[in-house]
């Protein structure tokens, strides 16, 4: 597939980099970009050679939000019929781990996209926020839910109700990002983490990601049960036998993804 607004590269180390590519508008997320992004992520999710995905923008912007100009004149009915959030729901279903490599602005839908990823590496220049309040709306792609779960009610309220951006260091202190590095290293750091995850047994990675995400929409009891079943399930894999055998034989395991 030829993409207009994203760049896709596959690395022999077992991961892919998806780069949002609308630099003139700070990677504002229009419908076409979202369509391409979801198609790319789903394609990578089906590729057994890709064990981790790095999602990034450029130094100036991860993404400055949904494309305001595209939606400014829309009516409620048009917004309902566009059903743009159906695509966002498909991102939530991606089984391969996604690392966001964030530099510059991650605002509104950009912040929501970052939070839809599994791990976040930020550059020191990252500016993160939910500024929708300043244009007469509110977060619509998970901002009130994922942000609240990540930083707690009071900080989420402050960010969403004032629209103020926070720095990378604040985002780190608040648990919204995993690591902050100088701008020249953020993408390399994310790729190095992707390389590390790509070397792990893929079925265990997939089921572990699934179980962690389950924690967001179930009770502790339901979640523990789900975790236990995934744990048992891995005993049906060749990789479990190989991993435990290799440990006893003091050698490196050879994963098959089976
Ligand atoms: C459309 C955008 C855009 C956006 C920036 N641009 N953000 N276009 N939608 N979200 C465009 C600008 O119009 C401008 O185009 C170019 O990108 C450069 O932006 P400037 O404003 O000139 O840059 P700067 O002065 O550095 O300010 C950067 C900024 C500001 C602080 C990030 O652009 C800004 O406030 N952007 C909007 C942020 C926002 O409100 N995001 C939430 C959107 S609502 P021209 O053609 O003039 O050069 C949302 C809802 C999500 O995300 C719901 C789920 C999908």
Q: Can you walk through the features of this model?
A:
- The chain is built from 12 helices and 10 strands.
- By secondary structure, the protein is α/β, with parallel strands linked by helices.
- It folds into 2 domains: 6-198, 2-enoyl-CoA Hydratase, Chain A, domain 1 (Alpha-Beta Complex), CATH 3.90.226; 202-248, Orthogonal Bundle (Lyase 2-enoyl-coa Hydratase, Chain  A, domain 2).
- The longest helix has 15 residues, at 31-45.
- It is globular, with a radius of gyration of 19 Å.
- It starts with 5 loop residues before the first strand and ends in a 10-residue tail after the last helix.
- The mean pLDDT is 97.
- Hexanoyl-coenzyme A binds at residues 25-26, 28, 64-69, 105, 107-109, 131-132, 135, 140-141.
Helical fraction equals: 40-55%
Q: How large is the count of helical segments?
A: 12
Radius of gyration: 19 Å
End-to-end Cα distance, whole Å, is 29 Å
Oligomeric state of the chains in view: single chain
| Largest sheet entry | 6 strands, mixed
> What is the mean pLDDT?
97
CATH architecture of the largest domain: Alpha-Beta Complex
Enumerate the spans where pLDDT stays under 50 for 5 or more consecutive residues: none
Helix/strand-derived class?
Answer: alpha/beta
CATH class identity of the largest domain: Alpha Beta
The largest sheet has its strands arranged as 1-2-3-5-7-10
CATH superfamily of the largest domain: 2-enoyl-CoA Hydratase, Chain A, domain 1
The ligands bound in this entry are: hexanoyl-coenzyme A
Q: Which word captures the global form? A: globular
Strand content: 15-25%
Integer count of domains: 2
CATH topology of the largest domain: 2-enoyl-CoA Hydratase, Chain A, domain 1
- Number of β-strand runs: 10
């Amino acid at each position: 597939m030829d993409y207009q607004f994203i760049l896709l590269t596959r690395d022999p180390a077992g991961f892919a980099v998806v780069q949002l590519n609308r630099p003139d508008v700070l990677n504002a997320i229009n419908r076409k970009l979202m369509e391409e992004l979801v198609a790319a992520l789903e394609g990578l999710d089906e590729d057994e050679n890709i064990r981790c995905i790095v999602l990034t923008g450029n130094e100036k912007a991860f993404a400055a939000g949904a494309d305001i100009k595209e939606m400014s004149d829309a009516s409620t009915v048009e917004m309902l019929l566009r059903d743009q959030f159906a695509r966002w729901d498909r991102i939530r279903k991606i089984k391969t781990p996604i690392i966001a490599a964030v530099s510059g602005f991650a605002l509104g839908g950009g912040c929501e996209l970052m939070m839809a990823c599994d791990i976040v590496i930020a550059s020191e220049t990252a500016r993160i926020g939910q500024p929708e309040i300043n244009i007469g709306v509110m977060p619509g792609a998970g901002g009130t839910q994922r942000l609240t779960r990540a930083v707690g009610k009071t900080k989420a309220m402050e960010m969403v109700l004032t629209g103020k951006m926070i720095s990378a260091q604040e985002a780190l202190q608040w648990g919204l990002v995993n690591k902050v590095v100088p701008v020249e290293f953020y993408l390399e750091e994310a790729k190095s983490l992707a390389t590390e995850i790509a070397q792990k047994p893929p079925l265990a990675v997939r089921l572990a990601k699934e179980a962690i995400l389950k924690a967001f929409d179930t009770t502790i009891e339901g979640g523990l049960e789900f975790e236990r079943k995934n744990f048992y399930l891995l005993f049906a894999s060749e990789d479990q036998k190989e991993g435990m055998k290799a440990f006893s034989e003091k050698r490196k395991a050879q994963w098959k993804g089976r």
